[in-house]
Design goal:
By secondary structure, the protein is an alpha/beta fold. 43% of the residues lie in helices and 25% in strands. Helix 1 runs parallel beside helix 2. The mean pLDDT is 94.
Length: 117
């Protein structure tokens, strides 16, 4: 496993909450590590219900968005569910402009994301 952990993983019942540690997800190397850690949740650990918590994130590059799209595909292929929460308004803008707010299930906070999962 190369690189430091970039995600805080927490289990709530059968739901896995992955919280991004970095404020800015920009650096190509970091994005690789984040992607691998996310994909590992599905591919290695077989997690089916995943919430990605963006409360720390202030900036997201388009390469990072690419990883999220791939993650979504992997989760769907594994018949799982992916939810996003606590996305700041300025980052939500990026999702809205790219129409990704239609692809992802987005919630205001962790409590809402966990409801009825």
């Amino acid at each position: 496993m190369s690189g430091h952990r970039r995600l805080d993983i927490e289990e709530v019942g059968d739901v896995t909450i992955a919280r991004f540690i970095d404020k800015k997800i920009l650096d190509e190397g970091n994005i690789q590590v984040i992607g691998n850690q996310l994909f590992g949740l599905v591919e290695d650990d077989g997690r089916q219900k995943i919430v990605l918590d963006f409360s720390n994130v202030e900036y997201l590059s388009s390469a990072a968005l690419g990883k999220l799209i791939t993650m979504d595909k992997k989760v769907k292929a594994a018949k799982g569910k992916l939810r996003l929460c606590s996305v700041r308004p300025d980052i939500y803008e990026v999702f809205a402009i790219t129409k990704l707010n239609k692809l992802f299930n987005m919630f205001d906070n962790q409590e809402e994301a966990l409801e009825g999962f």
